[in-house]
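Feature request, filed as a ticket because there's no other form

It would be nice if the structure record came with a short human-readable summary line next to the tokens. Right now we just get the raw output. Example of a typical job, pasted below so the devs can see what we mean:
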Amino acid sequence: SFSLTLIDALDTLLILGNVSEFQRVVSVLQEGVDFDIDVNASVFETNIRVVGGLLSAHLLSKKAGVEVEVGWPCSGPLLRMAEEAARKLLPAFQTPTGMPYGTVNLLHGVNPGETPVTCTAGIGTFIVEFATLSHLTGDPVFEDVARKALKALWKNRSDIGLVGNHIDVLTAKWVAQDAGIGAGVDSYFEYLVKGAILLQDKELMSMFLEYNKAIKNYTKFDDWYLWVQMYKGTVSMPVFQSLEAYWPGLQSLIGDVDNAMRTFLNYYTVWKQFGGLPEFYNIPQGYTVDKREGYPLRPELIESAMYLYRATRDPTLLELGRDAVESIEKISKVDCGFATIKDLRDHRLDNRMESFFLAETVKYLYLLFDPDNFIHNDGSVFDVVLTPYGECVLNAGGYIFNTEAHPIDPAALHCCRKRKEEQWEVEDLMREFYSLKKNKKFTLKRAADHGEGESAKDPEDASSEKGGETRNSKKSSHSLLSCPSQSFNSKLAVLGQVFLDN
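Raw output as currently delivered:
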């Protein structure tokens, strides 16, 4: 439990600027965390907190001044720990459908009497961590099982395009048929979008966009999202759940900012009513739901505020941040931390603090108010690192947060595997600044228009000669290196490599 809390809060320390404490915790973790224990663990929670936390800390270690081993980021103690933890979860995916059990014993695998009923989010929330792990280690098994689980959910959606809340992973029969965007479903939709962005995967994005149409058609009422029966689309629960507050942030990631702001402002009125978001809020009655009046300091509304503020700079979003800081300080602060609010009606406290408060809530609040944080890097500053597979770029920005707010550097996915069809695109360009010292940090100004000099090579040219070999490139619908009006950020994103002017 202590190790989990350390892992879950680790990258928060660096983002908040506490480098020395980050280094100290990494040194503690590098002594080893024992996963060979006879414990039944949530497959979902172990992935988002332990695997995600270790991957993020591994990729941020060099930035934090931790001495890394030769071959980093393709090797390292935290990466090996993440891989070990993920391998403990793999037995859960050995089902006829490819959808995982919800719980696995870390020592013995899936218990013989384990229930086959798993929530949708517990099936569809692996692609970010598992694809990252596959790209860094070179073992495709992790990404493969994550993709198979995602596609199984897609295959079993209803005729009107919705998924339910719980499904039998052996028979693919829906056990709970409530469809919505909240608890039990939420991070499945989140990972279709974030997986699509991380992997530049059109199939994952097209899945989400199809779901988004069905969600708008059947669950959306006046900028609220209700729960409906997945086959009929009839309303089953007219409630707003606090976990649904991630949705405006997700909408902003796909560019649907106007709808995102309208939904966000609805949710913000609930916050202002209670000084926090109750777990359930009855929309017609405008009040809390019995036995769901608590607020465990969840991050989702603050997370959406951060994303939307990056997109709009609307000061209303900073007001939410201020309100959140004041509420949490006034209502929940105790001598040894910040306590869960048991009942928002009278602000009674519970004797617990969830680790996601440190991993997510504090982090998103800080990032909302810190526009110069390295997480918000626009690509103008970056690090070039030498790996066994050649040079690659890290810390250029564009971080993808997993659902526990652990940032993954998307450029790192290109560091540990050499693909012949990609090599020619970077070799000549990288040679121009090959004299730069290993790991040197430097700043670039916005690139001038291409068309002058060799670095403006068109990737749609059929081939490039090197060592007597001809390498063919895959044509894409966009010629990323040749468009004169293209912004610097887009050029930076090509295959995780940076392209400079003459």
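Something like this underneath would help us a lot:
The chain is about 40% helix and 15% strand.
Residues 420-428, 441-502 have pLDDT under 50 and may be disordered.
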